[in-house]
Amino acid sequence: MKKNNIVEIVILGVLGALVVITLLIPQLLRDRENGSLLSVSVLFRDTDSSNWIITRQGMEQAADELGAELRFLNLTVQNDSREQEELLRRESEGGADALVAVPVDPESLYMALTRLSTSCPMVTLECAMEGGAGAVAPDNRAVGQELARALLEDWSGGQVVLLDNSAACPEVESRLEAAQEVLSQAGISCVRLAALPEAWADKKWVMTFEPGATRQAADQKEDGYSFALYGVGSSTAITTSLEQGSIAAVAAWSDYAAGYLAVEQAVRAVRQRPQDLEPLTFSIVRGEDIYAPENQKLLFPVTS
To answer: What are phi and psi of 39, to 5 degrees?
Structure first.
């Protein structure tokens, strides 16, 4: 009986050791592949990152899988390009292995990158930057074109307002110009406005090209105005407005995927294995299409 007990203990010990080894091997292999933990600084162009919650979740998932540590940085003044350039310099000199940025001004940010004393790859979100390690963004011209075509399907006469906040968001210019070209070719009169007008009584059609502007216009419409709104974005607030009919259609892409790909590309750039990035896939979504299977994955990402 005593001999049997010893055999059982030995067998249990061996099985326990096998379980521990099985759990440790994947981690050891990942550590061997990834090397030491990389430091990736993320530079937003906003004073807070509340507009980037889903994007951050994608970034955090990628960082966890790829062995990176993230440092999120906001501006003290909205869309201050000089402050963003200073953050770039500080993070690079402070030891960041790579940077991810939502540029205020891609050209000036590139110039700041060239002045660094150390080599630090940078990946951009929303728009491309010369000299960057890659850009994670949709085809901005295609976004504007397809959104304008969605409006054309509904258009019944009247001028179209194009809300232009391209000074704050450089990607807006490409989207807006492409939309204006499509509408002009169809013989539709367009007017650019830099801000939401105080009175919407004579405005029937409005296009916005950046999520923040889309949310603002949707809020205006919910105050009782009757214009048809076409915008961009996939946040919870925008999806709710779309479902309630405050927005006629949006161009939407996965913010979660964008965040994941940006950090993945930054890590790959440090390890000398960058990949060619394709434009993010986007869809034109109307309220009645929100719960289509392909749009549910886009608008309601499942995150762990």
So the answer is: -105, 120
